[in-house]
Specification:
about 20% strand; 5-stranded antiparallel β-sheet; alpha+beta
């Protein structure tokens, strides 16, 4: 009987501690709202970049990411947070898309036009 009472009392105590931890404190609630607001603003900035815009315009909101890329296909990371990413395809402007051997160019130009941009996604950084 004592063992059963101890188990019940321990369960209530542990369960109560978990409820207290899960209940946001006054400062935590404001902090969570601030985080949501910050993410919302970052997403709004990322969504201003559309197909038809230039690489130069893209680079006002994003910067380059490491990893494999070509001059016409690359992953970019948000200037707000490097875990927010987009994959972008370009059309070369003022030069051919491919070299004399048929390989996609590695050259990048600020006037290149965005042909396709993915939805923003989350991923840890890629380091070369």
């Amino acid at each position: 009987m004592r063992l059963r009472a101890f188990i019940i009392l321990a369960s209530v105590t542990i369960g109560g501690a978990n409820i207290i931890q899960a209940t946001p404190q006054p400062g935590q609630l404001q902090s969570s709202q601030d985080h949501v607001s910050w993410v919302s603003e970052a997403l709004k900035r990322m969504q201003t970049i559309k197909p038809g815009m230039t690489r130069e315009a893209l680079l006002t909101v994003f910067t380059t990411e490491g990893g494999l890329s070509t001059g016409l296909r690359r992953t970019f990371v948000s200037r707000d947070c490097p875990y927010f990413k987009v994959d972008v395809e370009f059309k070369a402007v003022g030069r051919p898309d491919r070299d004399n051997d048929g390989r996609v160019t590695l050259v990048e130009g600020s006037e290149d036009i965005i042909v396709k941009i993915s939805q923003p996604y989350l991923q840890f950084s890629i380091l070369d």
